[in-house]
Amino acid sequence: MTREAFMLTVPHQGVRQVSAVWDLPEGPPRATFVLAHGSGAPMSSEFLEDIAPRLARAAGLAVMRFNYAYAELMVRTGGRRPPERRPALEVVHRAALDAARARYPDLPLIGGGKSLGGRISTLLAAEGAALDGLILLGYPLHPPGKPERQRVEHFPDVTVPTLFLQGTRDALADLELLRPALERFAGDQTLHVVEGGDHSFSVLKRSGRTTQDVFDELTAAVAAWADAAL
Question: For the whole model, what pTM was predicted?
Fold first, then answer.
């Protein structure tokens, strides 16, 4: 497995370049996966640092991560920043998709990400971004404690095959609400439930499973979905 770090030029006021990295499989990749980070941590979060190379090795994906502009500033300054508004996130995300497509123009292009990054990916897909699929790691269906504020208005416009990976203890996605919401999805959708997982897929010690066990499950689910969808 090979890792290549680079700077991605983006059309963003104030931040002209953001950090990005490729995790590449040993052999030729069968698809590219632009994996966006969640709201509270950059692309170098412990979760993404673990899952990205696993997906490259086990699923044969060329996995590209990048920082949104606000996350790039967090890394540079060492301070906390809230996510920017949707247009600023989307302009950086589109630049990442364009970079992935330019490097591997003949491969299927998958979007997705952790929480916020996954949601922005679905919004871009609904707007017509040229994607061949979506992989969503903990879709933020609603804010914590506010299940009535569901983020599903764009689901009928998402036409590509999509894999939802969700934990049963996810405070941002009540599965009893997510399942009927998926019926509004235009494209084929697959829901893989991680028993006992929270929004970060952490499980309780009494479950008898380790973090690595859960990551193995996530990786296997992505590989199986890719076999069927690509």
Answer: 0.97
